[in-house]
Here is the input.
Amino acid sequence: MRAPLDAKVWLEGMAGCGKTTVGLSRVIGLLERGAPADSILIFVPQRSMALPYIAALRGRQAYRGGQVWLQTIGSLSLRMVEMFWFLVAAEAGFKRPRELPNFLSLELVQYFMTRAIEPLVDERDYFASVRIDRPRLYSQIVDNMNKAALVGFPISEIGSRLKAALANGVEQAHIYDDAQTCAMAFREYCLARNLLDFSLQLEVFRDYVWATPQARAYLRGRCKHLIVDGVEEDNPASHLFLSDLLETCESALIIYDRDAGFRRFLGADPASARRLRDSCELKATLDETLVMGAQVTALGAQLAAQLGASVAGEGDVDPRPALIAEAQRYHPEMVDWVARQVDMLVNERDASPNDIVILAPFLSDALRFGLADGLARLGIPVRSHRPSRALRDEPAARTLLTLARLAHPRWALPPTDFDVVFALMTAIKDLDLVRAKLLTEMLYRQGRLLPFSEVRSTAMQARVTFDLGERYDRLASWLNRYLEDERSDAIDIFFRRLFGGLLSRAGFGFYADVDASNTAQNLVDSARGFRWSLDFMRRYEADIDLGLDYVNMVDRGVIANFYLRDWIADAEEGVLIAPAYTFLLNNRPVDYQFWLNIGSEGWSRRLYQPLTHPYVLSRGWTAGRMWTDDDEQHLSRETLGRLLLALTRRCRKAVYLGYSELSESGYEGRGLLLETIQALLRRYARAGQHV
Here is the structure.
């Protein structure tokens, strides 16, 4: 596509037609024409979507004018609030406007949410009928506040909006009232301590910073060239800011994927994004796929059509050659079948492991382990990515936390025998469950690991083997030396020393394990950020133990921050195992996709969240209207149709269906995806074309 570099262009099309390539060419063209690098703003809904731009700019010759801006609404609002803080802090309601702000990560928001509202929840018996863990409950309150900021209504209206649409009884109404009270209590807690969670940060930027002439002059003077990629995945707050910026910038390219909008549960609003089209004088469309073959194109279009969508490309092409399936009776049999098919693709058809993805609506620990173990036995490299998980749920993080407890007896948090068994098995390569249990029973005493020489039975030593015993001794000695050292490291430094000095060495569990190494580094970054951010808390509580508080926070099930390295790792060699939406947000095509557990309702049904609702709290919802079963069914069909279309548009050759009559939990699944595929196949059977 050719367009003047001084024009404001709206570019739309389906996935895989080269829209981001156009964006990359425009950036390079602006730089080569002499535009100062820092006059170019690349705006994306999620940091991972900027990776193609980062890769394109890396290693190129230096251009004048500093660096190209790569921003999300979160990073930009943080920078602007920090820059203009002292101009707006008092007006925004902060109780300490002369002191610096403290910006909270997702993990820190959950930590302070617990401190702020847990006494209130316990005292008044809030959420007594809600059967979910406290961290998940609090994360839904945070989600409500974020939705309010992104859509543009006051957080004081959260409860009334939810009750008007969803409260079908007194008990449910009380739950929404409790959630409203907790949101307001947390906001007051933040204002009193100069704490800014994402919702407050965005409100301060939108209502106060952006209203100051100095801030407007700064951004408008700097951002002369605007490139927005994935605008349909962004939120109304971003769109309002972009609309304002479009009035004064010299050029712009707004890239819109007409069939996307996967981040709706995070506030994405394609309808709001499309209003930016009117601010562009040139409109262009790309419709020719650079990814899909004809059969995959037909597969996506016909599956979406079965769900009520009208999509170009359905035609008369038979999609069944692009759809490979073999029914299994039990779930483990399906996992084995997937491993064999991947092995066939890699070793018989010369497919690159990097061009194969294995997707499921939810990726349980058991499913991930079964797939990873099966592929590893066949010598096929594998990697996995599961964002929005609790840190403690990752084996590497859980191991480091257990070893931290062993190294800090003053915390009075001795790990259980089960945790020690798991930690030993993960930390020491080739140590199986039986021998890890034997070592724990013989050598774990009063919160300490005794040396292997304390095993008096020669038979037991031989059973464990002296090789594994020597590695165990190195781990126990490292911890005991740390205990004897009077110096106590900060918790992030402890994690880094343990990982770098022992666990990443040959013979130990993190050696040459990319997933474990990334998790360990995420834990180090998380703990460091926690320490840096909470140093100011000593002015309120002088005796606070940051290491103890951090371990307690993670043990409660805090949901992990966003770490860009997890998305960068997706570009490394290996079969990717991930939830379907995680793969989509990585926005890259592959040759082969495996869709697992196609009988699961998780492919189409949204997660039940008793304290929030992403659609009722969206800009498109009519205030006061009740959410009905018809709305839920329509949403399920629309969601699945959009998902299947997006997946097939990122697939070049074929889709493999993983199906077992009995699910992972032992139940028969009859989800909407299975019904849709069966309906498509029956249609061809009725036409006299036998499957």
